[in-house]
Task: structure prediction
Amino acid sequence: MTDYTADEMMTVAAARALTDGSVCFVGIGLPSTAANLARRTHAPDLVLVYESGTIGSKPATLPLSIGDGVLADSADSLVSVPEIFNYWLQPGRVDVGFLGAAQLDRFGNINTTVIGDDYRDPKVRLPGAGGAPEIAASCREVFMIVRQSPRAFVERVDFVTSLGFGTGKGDRERLGLKGRGPQLVITDLGVLRPDPDTCELTLTQLHPGVDLATAKAKTGWDLRVSPDLVTTERPTDQELAALRDLTA
Amino acid sequence: MATIAPLAQAVSQVVHDGDTVAFEGFTHLIPFAAGHEVIRQGRRDLTLVRMTPDVIYDQLIGAGCARKLVFSWGGNPGVGSLHRFRDAVQNGWPTPLELEEHSHAGMANRYVAAASGLPFAVLRGYMGTDLPKQTANIAPITCPFTGEVLTAVPALRLDSAVIHAQRADRKGNVQLWGITGVQKEAVLAATRSLVTVEEIVDELEPRPGAVVLPSWVVDYVAEVPNGAHPSYAHDYSTRDNDYYQRWDEISKDRESFRTWLEGVA
Result:
């Protein structure tokens, strides 16, 4: 069996979560790598949608940006940016929104705008919202892939760029959002899912070789652990070969 | 009818000090050469508009051309942060930069409203986010037919729009294809427009999925081969990903940026 890194385990776990034949709105970076790995392994008919307006892209190489030529060349349909948001995302046609985040909190709210309490005088200015607020609102469910650290996994985000569960159960419904919100957070240590009663992100899965104390230490809130905690299956040789071929 | 002119002349006619101006392009067809010409001409007090301000906006901001940025995602795509943008926001260097921040869906709809001659656009957006607390022109609106509460954003009228396309003909009709982003909307939202093109041809051959902007909605066309570099023009060039990686180093400190800037001038 081949050795692997924590990042490889994370990407493989994220790829496995995508169902063949479903439609996935893909963010650039880790989500794009995972979605393309899924297409090369168990989900050849996964439909990849990128916000640049490419629908059904089948890139032969991993794109660096969301608008690389390989995404356009291999797409089933190429539409304008207003169209991708208005006709394709907004009505709820997309199954899974797949996002990364600079900061994430215990209720799955996402911050990609500023670090620090003062928006006008931030400690760190981040890139901003992009398509994420409406992806997080409109997709049937949201998966996230984020490396776990106390700086990234915080009690409460400094700025809600994209809504998870707000302050807890019921917030999304009160705002009239149709999508179910973040259902899966895949990290380099394990997997978190929202608690069905409170919507608090709860550790349900640890990757092989990761101990619970580490997962707790790398979380900026008092991490709750599912009583049914399971261990992720290690990456198969086939998954690792496909991933390394993709990122080579 | 569009006027076909050299780049420097076209830029000086279209982009003026104090303009609200968009150099649009969604990763593809970004009008870098025109942006560099704006830096050379020393334009000041621009309100820069773009969904995805990337390296060319980092350069314009670092060169001191801008006083405000209207945007939805400011980064170096696939690489990381924009250091000149950060320096302007966090430290006011070389001048302070006012921000007006939206989501992509909001910006796209603002362009559509302006292109449509409407005062605002309606969307399902921004719900539950902190953006409306910081951005004054995001407002709730109630549907008069269903009572549903939605979000309104105002039309994004531009003084000037600059885009890059693959081709124009000698009359100034413009053709672009591949990822076409919001360029059509930006041109139709603007009082003045400039399109730089890879080549000027006798006749535009039809292309599947191409956007054609008729000559009478374009003010200036300038032939600038490779004018989108380090971005790309589909069927003409590929994205120079190494340049985007290198920009991260060049832009990290003010001195290496200044050296780069002297090279442009």
About this structure: The first helix of chain B runs from residue 7 to 14.
